[in-house]
């Protein structure tokens, strides 16, 4: 009888121990699964937040550079620039201050520049500014000497020639800028000034073909029109958040404040 009782107690203890171990394993498994889900959710939320921060920074940089390009072109006289060194020097001094003002108030901007076509100016002409630290103020430095590099040298002068060749504003792929030893991406707006653009004969020819023309006091780019429409709609009284102008189905410029 005692042997049977011992076996029964032993069986109960073994069953209890097995049940406890099984419950423990299940609890640990559920805890690990829950912790894994929580970690995944936290990672997704953190990634989403960082994505929104990066997108916001990118959008602000685009708006700053687009607006700066309009400022640079609004006071630019092509003929005077080509013919008068004094005008070119004065213009450079004026636009240099604008470059510093815009870039110093643009989070994420490490460098800022406005360079002239080296075929028509000194190879180091223009404006170049760089931060010495992430939180430091931009300081003007001697611009890169175009005469030292081939146009295909992306690491040194790709930031100039690639947007010019594309003939539109672009975000460059990440690259090592060998001039300042920084791995970076750049948003660049090429500015084109042509002698005798849209001559009177052209305007008359378009009128004869019954084209409807509206003249504006700014360079007619998608970026300029986005800001123009934003300002006009806001003046009417609407609570506008963002204005978008599409040049093509896949190419769009936006402006918002």
Helix content: 40-55%
Strand ordering within the main sheet: 1-2-3
The mean pLDDT is: 78
- Which sequence of SSEs, written as H and E, runs from N to C? HHHEEEHEEEEHHEE
Determine the N-to-C terminus distance: 90 Å
Biggest sheet statistics: 3 strands, antiparallel
Strand content: 5-15%
> Helix count?
6
Structure description:
The protein is an alpha+beta fold and 257 residues long. The protein is 53% helix and 14% strand. It contains six helices and nine strands. The protein has helices spanning 2-74, 78-83, 85-104, 154-166, 200-208, 222-236, and strands at 111-115, 126-131, 138-140, 170-171, 175-177, 182-184, 187-188, 243-248, 251-255. The strands form four sheets. The chain has a three-stranded antiparallel beta sheet, covered by helices on one side. The protein has a two-stranded antiparallel sheet with strand order 4-7. A hairpin with a 6-residue loop joins strand 2 (126-131) and strand 3. Helix 1 (2-74) packs antiparallel against helix 3 (85-104). The longest helix has 73 residues, at 2-74.
What is the fold's blueprint, element by element?
Layout: H1 2-74, H2 78-83, H3 85-104, E1 111-115, E2 126-131, E3 138-140, H4 154-166, E4 170-171, E5 175-177, E6 182-184, E7 187-188, H5 200-208, H6 222-236, E8 243-248, E9 251-255
Short recap of the structure:
With 257 residues, the chain is of the alpha+beta class. The chain has helices at 2-74, 78-83, 85-104, 154-166, 200-208, 222-236, and strands at 111-115, 126-131, 138-140, 170-171, 175-177, 182-184, 187-188, 243-248, 251-255. Helix 1 (2-74) packs antiparallel against helix 3 (85-104).
């Amino acid at each position: 009888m005692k042997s049977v009782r011992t076996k029964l107690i032993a069986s109960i203890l073994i069953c209890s121990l097995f049940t406890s171990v099984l419950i423990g394993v299940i609890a640990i498994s559920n805890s690990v699964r829950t912790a894994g889900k929580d970690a995944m959710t936290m990672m997704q939320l953190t990634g989403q937040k960082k994505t929104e921060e990066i997108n916001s920074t990118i959008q602000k940089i685009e708006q700053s550079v687009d607006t700066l390009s309009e400022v640079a072109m609004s006071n630019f006289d092509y003929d005077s620039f080509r013919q008068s060194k004094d005008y070119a020097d004065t213009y450079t001094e004026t636009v240099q201050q604008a470059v510093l003002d815009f870039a110093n108030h643009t989070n994420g901007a490490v460098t800022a520049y406005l360079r002239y076509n080296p075929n028509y100016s000194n190879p180091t002409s223009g404006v170049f500014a760089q931060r010495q630290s992430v939180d430091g103020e931009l300081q003007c430095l001697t611009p890169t000497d175009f005469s030292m590099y081939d146009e295909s040298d992306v690491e040194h002068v790709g930031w100039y020639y690639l947007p010019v060749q594309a003939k539109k504003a672009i975000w460059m792929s990440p690259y090592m800028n060998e001039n300042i030893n920084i791995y970076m991406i750049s948003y660049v707006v090429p500015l084109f000034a042509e002698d005798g653009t849209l001559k009177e004969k052209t305007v008359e020819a378009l009128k004869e073909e019954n084209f409807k023309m509206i003249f504006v006091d700014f360079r007619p780019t998608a970026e300029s029109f986005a800001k123009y429409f934003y300002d006009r709609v806001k003046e009417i009284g609407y609570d506008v958040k963002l204005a978008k102008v599409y040049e093509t189905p896949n190419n769009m410029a936006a402006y918002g404040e």
